[in-house]
Amino acid sequence: MTPDSIYQLKFLSDLSEGPHSKPLFVYTDIEKPEKDSPKYRSRLATWDGSLRFLTQGEAKNPCWKGEFIYFLRKVDNLPQLFRLPLVGGEAEQITHLKAGIEGYKVSPDGTKIALLSRGDCDVPKPDAPRVYEDWPVKFDGRGLLPTQPREIWLWQLGQTQKLLSWPLDVEEVVWNPSGEGLYWVASSNKQERWNWVQRAYWLDLQGNTQELFGGAGPIVGLEPTPDGGLAYLAHAHEHGGGTELRLYHRALSGEIRLLAEGAFLNTVNSDVRMGNGIQTPRMGPEGNLYLVVTQQGTARLLEVTPQGHSEFASGAEHSVLGYAFCADDLYTLSESFVHAARLTRNGEVIFDPNAETLASLPQPQAVSYAAPEGHQVAGWVLLPEGSGPHPLVVYIHGGPHTAFGNALMLQLQLFRAAGFAVAYANPRGSTGYGQEFAVLGTRWGDIDEADLLGFLDSVLAQFPLDPQRVGVAGGSYGGYMTNWLTARHPERFKAAVTDRSISNWFSFFGASDIGPRFTRLELGAEPWNKPEVLWQKSPLSLVHQVQTPTLVVHSEQDHRCPIDQGETWYTLLLQKGVPTKFFRVPEEGHELSRAGRPDRRVARLEAYLEWWNSYLK
Description:
By secondary structure, the protein is of the alpha+beta class. Helix content is 17%, strand content 36%. It contains eleven helices and 39 strands.
């Protein structure tokens, strides 16, 4: 296995119910034109005992309703809504809004479609100046944002008209069961948007709207219930950035009940995913709610009754990336330590598009470190061939409120195949181990550092590893921790790779697309309020101590952890005489390692291996 194995990968996503009680999904592979750069190709597909493609052109976000399958496809570089008749024939473009379509929901009877769009406003040319009066002005993966808010439009009988104007972006919309109106989510003012606070509203088809609830935190995953109520996920930032979502039900009378708590959604790290998957609440055929929850390194499907009783509807041997009910059958996209997404029916794997490409990958060995405070730190080790002692790479996940676990990290398997042992763990701040475990607050760099270093010592004591050849790496929060650890423990690591990192909380606050919100929620500080916390928690404050040879990896269009973070770290290490290189990637954002152009993903992995070979072999 080598980095260019990426070209052979196939990705399944966007699973939903299709016609004839068969699953509908998006199948993505990689094309390598002779005279052009490699690119992803996404097509609609179904499974009826074998793989059957429904489109050859680009198709994403599918939905089947009645006699049509709807999907999004780019026209002049903007998504528009198409529909494909089940009786056969070519797909028909049914929207022509100048700003394109950013989301849609088909009504229960299939006669109407709610659209999320910025309407008929002209899209600014890329080289045109922009004037902003709000924040954020950019977003990772999207670039500079339009100044026109995202609104609700209605398609009916071939006509498209605006149904709701709102001063801020509408984030989510869903039909009620009768099709008489829509539930939708948005912030009510700029301050709420800045602080990730939202409200839920009702909208009838005459354009009249009414606020229902909210104003304390985020609201996601709206799902109407048969009793006229609404299920959803929300919290009120009670524990800052580490607050877990909760499942609520709002009755038609307005009474709100808490049904379940947990680390909802699949937050397990993987670099072999594309597209989307349903993980938020959905009604099952028997009247119970289903949703995905991450627990102890595995994302499992949870079934919740209207009374709030819950039990798992999937096993612990794999993670659920998406799910759909087709008649009485439960289909999932499942993944594991050694498998990318596979299609299952009632728990049985029926289609694995990577059965040959990813054959015979070794299972990581589970390790548990008993911390002095009494908690356990779960982790895993991948050992290369041979008796050792092996050089070791400690790899740190992003977030920090995500987790490693039962999902494939191809990058780590590539390190192992190249002769490097890999150790990776879920320190405090990770999801899936309870609310208290997930909270870091001003303990960033303290309790998580203790867990990581304790885990490292435990691994070195248990496995045939060379303590003199230990490297450390990670992306995003993992990049922050790489900077932090090499600054705080200058002689501990022989090499480092810091990827899309944070080095300076002050500049991150102002330059990141989530800077103010994220910094307040995580550290409880601002540049004018507790500035000493931002400096104390910035690796930049300790950069003079770094001795570890460091490869800095950063993308120029990364708006989540802007490139000045990597530039600053690289420049200071260079000026200080620390061996360093800068792997700088144009036209890519924060998702380079997971969704960047395939050849750039390959080049990034090759740069990692070259660095490890130079300093750890």
